[in-house]
Specification:
The termini are far apart. 67% of the residues lie in helices and 3% in strands. It is globular, with a radius of gyration of 18 Å. Strand 1 and strand 2 form a beta hairpin. The longest helix is centred in the first third of the chain and has 29 residues. It is built from 13 helices and 2 strands, in the order H-H-H-H-H-H-H-H-H-E-E-H-H-H-H.
Length: 239
């Protein structure tokens, strides 16, 4: 039972990682009417179930995750919030390096590996993003993108409980990335769960403005999120 509870805690606190992927600055620049029309072209055979899960995720966010993130934002000084965000980004960055190599992006992989080393040492465990000032830009690569580079199609759209928008391909990729992420190898359930919860709150805080914008401009938030997620993934894969 303990293992089940721990697993559920981990799953819940992964929400911010993918729940708001569709609510990134990229879609904020798009025409919401145009994207809403494009959403109908997306393969969504389980739309009824997906909408129910979306409503569940929204309720979870409204009543727990968002209020917690707002409290964190209010009581935490800006420099500390920046340091925390940098720390978690660096801690999970080996996942990016692995997927760089799996996609054959060896030069980028070398740069990303150097980025981890620099920020982990000179940047004091990643608290300071020194690498970005040394012409080592940050990248975003995951196993879903790796599968796409191998020719695997995205498959039907999925709204995952707690985890948010995804697809059959990207959902499978999440499982691989989960086991590759050093965050989840931390020994001790208490320490690991504390880190996971902190990361989820930090990620939710970072997307606060985009989430608010989604609620304000979208006539059908579910369809808008579906389109924006799909477009963002397409852009990420083509990079």
């Amino acid at each position: 039972m303990t293992r089940i509870v721990d697993g559920l805690k981990t799953t819940i606190t992964l929400t911010a990682i993918t729940c708001l992927l569709g609510a990134s600055p990229a879609w904020a620049e798009e025409d919401p009417w145009e994207m809403d029309e494009q959403s109908f072209a997306i393969e969504d055979p389980m739309e009824s179930l997906n909408r129910s899960i979306y409503q569940f995720n929204t309720t979870f966010d409204n009543y727990l995750l968002e209020p917690t993130a707002k409290g964190y934002d209010k009581i935490t000084p800006a420099p500390i919030k920046t340091g925390i965000s940098n720390f978690f980004s660096n801690l999970s960055y080996p996942v990016v390096v692995v997927n760089d190599l799996l996609q054959g992006k060896f030069l980028q992989g070398g740069s990303d590996f150097a980025r981890v080393i620099v920020n982990s040492t000179v940047g004091v465990l990643g608290i300071f993003d020194v690498a970005s000032h040394l012409d080592m830009p940050k990248h975003s690569e995951d196993f879903g993108q790796t599968l796409a580079s191998w020719g695997v199609s995205d498959g039907p759209y999925l709204m995952l409980p707690f985890l948010g928008p995804s697809s059959v391909r990207d959902g499978s990729g999440l499982v691989v990335d989960f086991f590759a992420d050093p965050l989840y190898t931390i020994e001790g359930n208490g320490a690991r769960n504390a880190f996971v919860v902190s990361k989820a709150i930090d990620t939710r805080y970072q997307f606060a403005d985009e989430s608010k914008l989604l609620d304000e401009i979208a006539i059908d938030p579910y369809a808008f999120l579906r389109s924006s997620y799909s477009q963002n993934r397409d852009m990420q894969i083509k990079e």
